[in-house]
Design a protein that fits this description.
5-stranded mixed beta sheet, 3 helices, single chain, 153 residues
Length: 153
C-alpha cells in the first residue's frame, strides 16, 4: 500500500443536523486513491464504498448529503455501486453539469501520482430525499478556476 494512503486512515465523517422538518444526515468521505497496484486499489475502494452503502441503508429513513473524493471517474457508471446507489434513490448533484474536478492543468496535480494529462471527475456531491428536511438542490458547481488551487484537484 502507498505510504500516503496508509497513514491517511480514511473513513466516513457522519453528522446528523436537526432541521425544522427533521434530521438531515451529512456524510463526507475520501476513498483510497491507489496508484501502484491496480486491482488492489480498486478492491480497497469497493470495500470502502460497501461501508458507505451500509450507512446509506441504515439512514434510509432520512435525507442524506454524501460528498467527497471518491477517486473514481464516472462513479455512477460503476457496475456495482452505481445501480446500488440508484436503488437507494441517491442522485448526483451535478447530474446536469458534470464538470471535471481534477484538472490536468492544476499546478499541484503534476506533483501527485497518476494524475495524467486528462481532466477527470473524482469528487462528488450526492443526495437523496432532501424534501424530507424541507430542502432542495439549488446549484452545484466546481470552483475550478480559483486564483490558487487548494489541492491537486
Amino acid at each position: 500500500m502507498d505510504f500516503a494512503e496508509y497513514i491517511a486512515r480514511k473513513g466516513i465523517l457522519e453528522t446528523i443536523v436537526t432541521t425544522s422538518e427533521g434530521p438531515l444526515c451529512l456524510l463526507n468521505t475520501h476513498l483510497h486513491a491507489g496508484g501502484l497496484h491496480g486491482d488492489v486499489e480498486t478492491n480497497i475502494r469497493c470495500r470502502q464504498m460497501n461501508q458507505i452503502l451500509k450507512v446509506l441503508v441504515a439512514r434510509n429513513d432520512m435525507p442524506i448529503i454524501l460528498a467527497g473524493d471518491f477517486n473514481e471517474h464516472e462513479m455512477l457508471q460503476h457496475p456495482v455501486h452505481g445501480p446500488a446507489m440508484e436503488r437507494l434513490g441517491v442522485k448526483d448533484a451535478a447530474e446536469d453539469n458534470p464538470e471535471p474536478t481534477m484538472r490536468a492543468d492544476n499546478c499541484y496535480g503534476k506533483r501527485w501520482f497518476r494524475n495524467g494529462h486528462e481532466h477527470r471527475r473524482i469528487d462528488y456531491v450526492f443526495f437523496k430525499s432532501l424534501y424530507l428536511a424541507g430542502l432542495r438542490l439549488q446549484e452545484c458547481a466546481v470552483m475550478a478556476r480559483l486564483e490558487m488551487p487548494f489541492l491537486d484537484h
